[in-house]
From TrEMBL:
Membrane topology: Multi-pass membrane protein
Any GO BP annotation: macroautophagy
Transmembrane annotation, as ranges: 34-57, 97-119, 150-169, 208-227, 233-252
Superkingdom per UniProt: Eukaryota
InterPro entries in UniProt: CysZ/EI24, TPR-like_helical_dom_sf, TPR_rpt
Source organism per UniProt: Phytophthora citrophthora
Protein name (Swiss-Prot/TrEMBL): Protein EI24
Subcellular location: Membrane
Length: 565
């Protein structure tokens, strides 16, 4: 218990340290004019205008009103002191109501919209500087996540407010809740740009709950003990700073007991779907026979499939003792190597997964590091190689991400991830991984043992392969665009010809209609002429005109039917 507490406390302190490490974000401001301009806009709107108006109202408007009240009271000497205080309270309340309705709420709504735009600009530019091009997210998934997130955050805020009412520990509990929520606000920009689903974001926060509680504590401390609108203004003013810190920092997990998942959002995960069903579904989610959502991305499918395999294997080795687990790991690793050499990559991957589930990281940080370097990293790299041979690019990338999260200087994982990204047409990111591996290879030490010259040759060859793959991909895209353009031109040409034919038919019908109108006009003129002519002659002419008009209508109708046929 003491080890778990000390590990959790170290993670908490690590989060606090990252939240106050302002030197980490100086490079963002030096490299990007957009970040500087957007940050200045946030400062002017939230600091000078929003918070400045509150300060001006409290320190200037209210004292002036009180001063006029005192002068009127002394001049006319009306009422008692109690009556004067009552009138003053009513005037203060009325002025404060006008101030909030006519200024505070409108400016808050406007600043909320503008801040959202500026925050996104800052996050996009900072993420591009540090991590490269963001991962695309389907629009349907984005809408689903945003609506589910709004419901979940609403319930979490309700939980935060209710926790404040708990006797004695209420304020501290509410403070921790707000720290988690503020951390989620800051980090979700980074996670969203990385293509993480909402479920993965929440799981990551619950897994590293101590770190995120520490990261959000300084932010919460700046807003917790001030009035409502002042708190909102300070939050909006400081948010760009903590947003950049979140993009520049990653949680540091101590492992062991401290890394046990804390179900922070468990109640919300239960209540939010109920609210979604009551208020209307966000999107249609129908499961296939294997339990995978139809609207789940390929990356999430790879993650869920790997997670299910690991869970199944872990259940098999959970009852083994340490010597038996060590023997199990050795046996499965050798079986995986033999299967890989024989070309049975599926069997090899299953053997490596079996070995990974039996890893024992020990109770100390030193033992964990040894286990990671000697067993977890090599086994995971072998598993990634199996995924590459089976052309399961997303799973291979996932395996490499796990290795690089442990050891960022693992050249083998960088090579494998570059190959997977190249197959996923993410050529810039693949080239960046190979370049990173070359930088490590030129250094004094290499994480995974390899001949330096041979490694550099392989990396140079891999860069050439990526360039050739990019050229082929662009050529295919160009051919596809040319084909689409040709099909579009043919479709437009056909549409133009159809339009000309329709215009010709409409012109013929217009001529026929004009002939009908002329016939009607002739009949009308003949009928009007009956008043000045001889009655008998006029009547004969009128009947002849009517007869001609009838014949022309019949001919027009017959011609139209023939054309239609």
């Amino acid at each position: 218990m003491s080890d778990a507490f000390s590990a959790g406390f170290r993670e908490f302190c690590g989060g606090v340290q990252h939240a106050v490490s302002l030197h980490r974000i100086l490079l963002f401001y030096l490299k990007s004019r957009l970040i500087c301009v957007s940050s200045v806009k946030c400062f002017v709107l939230n600091g000078l205008i929003f918070l400045g108006s509150i300060y001006f109202f409290d320190q200037a408007v209210i004292p002036v009103i009180h001063l006029f009240g005192e002068l009127l009271h002394r001049s006319f000497s009306y009422g008692t002191t109690t009556q004067v205080d009552d009138v003053r309270d009513r005037v203060d309340g009325f002025v404060f109501l006008l101030y909030q309705v006519l200024w505070m709420y409108p400016i808050y709504c406007i600043s909320f919209i503008l801040n959202t735009i500026w925050y996104q600009e800052i996050a996009d530019d900072a993420y591009m500087q540090l991590h490269g091009k963001p991962s695309p997210t389907p629009v349907t998934d984005m809408i689903r996540d945003e609506m589910y997130r709004a419901i979940l955050v609403a319930f979490f805020l309700l939980q935060t407010v209710l926790s404040y009412l708990i006797p004695i520990i209420g304020p501290a509990t509410s403070f921790i809740h707000l720290s988690w929520l503020y951390s989620l606000y800051c980090f979700e920009y980074k996670w969203s740009l990385a293509g993480w689903s909402l479920e993965r974001r929440l799981a990551h926060l619950e897994q590293n709950w101590a770190y995120f509680a520490g990261f959000g504590s300084p932010f919460t401390l700046a807003t917790f003990f001030v009035p409502n609108f002042v708190s909102k203004g300070i939050f909006a003013l400081l948010f760009p700073v903590f947003l950049l810190l979140a993009i520049a920092c990653d949680p540091v997990s101590e492992g062991g007991e401290a890394s046990r998942k804390l179900p922070i959002f468990r109640i919300n995960e239960v209540m939010a779907p109920v609210a979604t069903d009551v208020c209307g579904s966000v999107t249609l989610q129908r499961k296939t026979e294997n339990g995978i959502m139809l609207n789940t991305s390929k990356k999430e499918i790879a993650y869920l499939d790997t997670k299910a395999r690991v869970k199944h294997s872990a259940q098999q080795v959970a009852q083994l003792d340490k010597p038996a687990k060590a023997q199990w790991i050795s046996t499965q690793r050798q079986a995986g190597n033999d299967a890989f050499r024989n070309g049975d990559y599926q069997k090899a991957a299953e053997a490596y997964i079996q070995a990974l589930t039996a890893l024992d990281f020990g109770s100390s940080v030193e033992k964990k590091i040894v286990c990671q370097q000697e067993l977890q990293i090599p086994l995971t790299c072998n598993l990634a190689a199996c995924m590459l041979m089976m052309e399961q690019w997303e799973k291979a990338r996932l395996m490499c991400d796990q290795v690089l999260a442990i050891d960022g200087n693992c050249t083998k994982a960088l090579q494998q991830r570059a190959k997977a990204k190249s197959k996923l047409t993410q050529f810039d990111e693949a080239r960046a991984d190979v370049t990173r591996a070359k930088q490590i290879a030129r250094g004094p030490t290499i994480s995974v043992g390899d001949g330096s010259d041979q490694l550099m040759d392989r990396l140079d060859k891999q860069l050439d392969d990526i360039s050739r793959a990019e050229v082929r991909h662009k050529h295919c895209l160009q051919q596809r665009k040319q084909f689409q353009k040709k099909m579009m031109q043919e479709a437009v040409g056909k549409l133009y010809n159809d339009k000309k034919e329709v215009g010709r038919v409409q012109k013929a019908e217009s001529i026929q209609q004009q002939q009908q109108n002329n016939s009607i006009l002739t009949f009308t003129e003949a009928a009007l002429a009956c008043n000045g002519w001889n009655a008998g002659v006029g009547w004969i002419i009128a009947m002849a005109a009517m007869f001609c008009n009838a014949i022309s209508r019949i001919l027009v109708a017959t011609r139209g039917k023939l054309k239609t046929a």
